[in-house]
Specification:
single chain; 584 residues; Fumarate Reductase Iron-sulfur Protein, Chain B, domain 2; 41% helix; globular
Amino acid sequence: MIEIEVLRFDREKDKEPYFKKYKIEKKYKMKILDALIAINENYNDNLSFRSSCRAGQCGSCALKMNGEVVLACKSEIKDKSKIEPLDFPVIKDLIVDKTKIEEKVANMGLFLETDDKDKNNRNNENNENNEYKEYKEYNKDNDDIENNEINDNKVNENENNESNENKEIDENKNKKFKDLKKSPETNNIKLDGCGCPSIIENEECMDTKKVRSCIECYSCLSVCPVIKETKEFAGPYFMRYISKFDFDPRDIGERTKESIEEGLYYCTSCGKCGEICPKEINSFGDAIEKLRAIANMKDLGPLEAHKEVKELISKTGRSVEELDESFIKTISKERTEKEKAFKNSENQNKSKKGKIAVFTGCMIDYRLQNVGFALIDVLKKNGIEVDVPEDQICCGSPMLRTGQTEIVESLVLKNKDALSDYDTIITMCAGCGATLKNDYPKYGVNLNVMDISEFLAKNLDTEKMKDLNLKVTYHDPCHLNRGQGIKEEPREILNNIKGVEFIEMEKPDQCCGAGGGVRAAKPEIAFGLGKKKAEMVEKLDVDAVISICPFCQYNIQDALNKEGLDNIKVMNILELLKMSYDDK
């Protein structure tokens, strides 16, 4: 037997939703949907929920289990689980009201737009050539070609009558159609405006393919932090919807302008929508980021603040201005030859670690130099020496996320020259690490990159630490947790630091609002999301918030300060580690 709780609510009679407990017999690999059905069978409780296909293809059964969005028909039920509806207005129990979403889809009129000439020709019966007639006749007795989109309009049977001579399909043509069905190069047969099939090569439709598998569960809209903050952003579902037409080579609609009107530059690139999508659609990477690049090519974007960052990178190699002397310049001047951590160092622990380079990123080099020095000190305490290559520059992430891709390759190649001789590259910024790991291979640059938490989790000498007597919580940077799959390593480190009490906040992985160019161009959104994070922190009575992202660090600290919580400090995990090793 297992016990589960289900959030019950009937808007016709209940004032507030409430959890109700149920005990049911758990069968082997029992799904959530099976459990809900069992509740109604055993309790006769009229629990309301949606379901249809039971195969993860219709999206109707999406809900939350223990706070995470899942499909009820695909996810296994767990003991002590809490089942809740998606974050939409509730009609009854687990059934939510999707009317506004469906109305918006209808009002936006999202459909494939081809040229007017083709539209006029669509109803012209003379435009159906004999080859297409043969093609349709062939497909009556054969499976539809994979990925075809054939019009539902039926051609009048009388108009399709052919003479007895023409009814015999030439064997060569029959073979051609069979080959066409099997061919990986031409497996996307589409109808052009006149109703005739047009062959679209794979390379022409790869982008639109990635975003066409949506099953309209609307889970992405349920979890998007930005649409809960502003009505100016339509959300990932609609960005994906627009992109599938914009990426289609046949479409002539003004999709770029449409995407901007629907809030293209409000997305923080947090990746939560992709994490929970049952069809694994990465709405930011596969849709929004590419729409931003198209907007840039058409001179319709990005926003002015984003353009200023590009100008700065082009001039200085950094995305922020140098307020104090950079970490790299300072360490180059101040460290003795014995301690120096540059290319001419002969003191590295090559036998155990190989050649290790530190990729600082813009913020740590120009704004948070103390984090860079903390890294050097912590590594030294653990007997590890590193290089800090002087020729490194911005990783390119700010350009990629805002669609200004034209200068990215030059940044990648310069960093390749600076880093390619090293066995391991250590990063201290979630965004830099995600870019080096995920984007650089697209430019043919493959480096062994490790976040500092990955690197240190198994290499810390805890005997040298002193007791700190601090209570801390941890914020998961989106580009570390979802961007790199790193969640447990920082927690492992925090739990190993002497005298540190680690307390989880309510939603540690909820976006703070700093990413995707939003902090620069839409600061009100960044502050709104940062405020929500500050409210979570306030409940914990902690001394510090720990993270591994300079942008998160700035944004959460600003939010705490504005909320009158400036006694709580936001720190990089390296700063906390340095404190634990000081004077020991």
